[in-house]
């Protein structure tokens, strides 16, 4: 199978984050670099580190040594805190077809991506339970056992 390659020049970081259109939870920043919590995390801990000026990717000649060193010092600082709190982390940057947003960015992450899927599914079920209760379809889910029974019925 051919990898999905996005031919549009998608740049979430310039269009949304640096422009301020999408508000982000900043972890750390310098004059030229920003670290923030991913708006749609793929891992339980998912921090993105970007240059504040447009650099397409790590192979780009526009990315000079000074900026690289500033980026790495921020990545390192973020990673130190993730490791201090969770014991380990990944540091990833993508190029070409692997890179969704065409603005240089690093992912600093911790944890099992499936936990996010499970958490989203759980959140959805809880919302449904609250809505069902509002409509008088179910009793109040007071205990863990009530919640588990509700989830069991939903998944059955
Ligand atoms: Zn950009």
Labels describing this entry:
156 residues; HIT family, subunit A; 2 domains; five-stranded antiparallel β-sheet; 40% helix; elongated; binds zinc ion
Explain how this protein is built.
α3 (113-134) packs across α4 (144-155). 40% of the residues lie in helices and 15% in strands. Mean pLDDT is 86; it is low at 1-8. The chain has four helices and five strands, in the order αβββαββαα. The protein folds into two domains: 12-111, HIT family, subunit A (2-Layer Sandwich), CATH 3.30.428.10; 115-155, no CATH class. A hairpin with a 7-residue loop joins β2 and β3 (45-51). It has 156 residues and is α+β, with helices and mostly antiparallel strands. The relative contact order is 0.15. Strands 1-2-3-5-4 form a five-stranded antiparallel beta sheet, covered by helices on one side. It binds zinc ion (ZN). Residues 11, 13-14, 54, 103 line the site of zinc ion.
Topology of this structure?
Elements: H1 12-18, E1 26-29, E2 33-37, E3 45-51, H2 65-86, E4 90-92, E5 106-110, H3 113-134, H4 144-155
Antiparallel strand pairs: 1-2, 2-3, 3-5, 4-5
Helix pairs in contact: 3-4
Bound molecules: zinc ion.
